[in-house]
Amino acid sequence: MQSSEPAKPLPYNDPAHWDKMVTAYEAQSQPFTTLFADAAVATLPIGPASKVLDVATGTGAAALAAARTGAAVTAIDFSAGMVARVRAHGLPNIEARQMDGQALDLPDAAFDASVSVFGVMLFPDWRAGLREMARVTRPGGSASIAVWKSADGAAVHLLLSQIIRRLYPDNVTPMPCTGLAELADPTRFAAAVIAAGFSEPAITEITHDFTLKVADPADIDKLFEFMPHWSGLDAGQSAAVARALRSEIEQRRTGDSFAIPSTALIATAQRT
Ligand SMILES: C[S@@+](CC[C@H](N)C(=O)[O-])C[C@H]1O[C@@H](n2cnc3c(N)ncnc32)[C@H](O)[C@@H]1O
């Protein structure tokens, strides 16, 4: 029997999913994404006279980096929880607003620079997300966009997919974000940035370790339960993958830390 229920959005495309993640994201992910956000913002020629937009700001990694230059920052996210967290910093030069990055409620050419760190790549219509960044950036202004250099993403997603690919190369569930796969390729990433209305993107690669805390590796499979790669495994396969994960962690951990090197691509381009 076919259900007449509308399809449930993917977790990444559901603001309620991110609303629930605010505290965990700030504690576990933001220290890691900040390393990339600082690098993305450093490519922008901005200072106290600049107006800067951060698209899909999350807990504000890139917005905070831009605000440190003295720029006036608008930080947007579709999650009310994320927006509230950024507002709670109480910085006079950050305005946080709830909106969809695929249809910005902002005027044309309103910003000297726009940035999106691991945001636009998740949008169902990531092309619209890039076009919207171009629309609101003034001609001659700049943009910096960070994506993962793997269609499997980064950090724990990447670790899990590497182990599944090793054990079951024919049974890897692709990550359900088309932007993640498309933009992970530097040539296609550059072409997408140009198609959105920017010129001559410079693409740089940057790698940092995500530090997974593994005080009790016996629990490790709990971490992966909600990940697309994990849900594609049957019971026998998930048990084998969990064993391989534990063994890899035991061999490579330093104390209770396990490093997962993750590489991003950062495109910096000018608005035509
Ligand atoms: C991986 S987090 C990145 C957050 C932050 N930029 C960072 O680097 O830490 C992705 C963010 O995108 C936001 N997001 C996802 N889809 C969105 C959309 N269509 N419009 C606006 N924000 C969106 C989520 O709420 C989440 O805060």
Outline the structure in words:
With 272 residues, the chain is an alpha/beta fold. It has one domain: Rossmann fold, CATH 3.40.50. It contains 10 helices and 7 strands. A 7-stranded mixed beta sheet has the order 3-2-1-4-5-7-6, with helices on both faces. Helix 3 links the parallel strand 2 and strand 3. It is globular, with a radius of gyration of 19 Å. The mean pLDDT is 92. Bound molecules: S-adenosylmethionine. The site of S-adenosylmethionine has 23 residues, from helix 1 and helix 2.
List the helices and strands and how they pair.
Elements: H1 15-42, E1 51-55, H2 61-67, E2 72-77, H3 80-88, E3 94-98, E4 111-117, H4 126-136, E5 137-148, H5 155-167, H6 178-183, H7 186-196, E6 198-213, H8 220-224, H9 228-231, H10 235-252, E7 257-271
Parallel strand pairs: 1-2, 1-4, 2-3, 4-5
Antiparallel strand pairs: 5-7, 6-7
The structure holds S-adenosylmethionine (SAM).
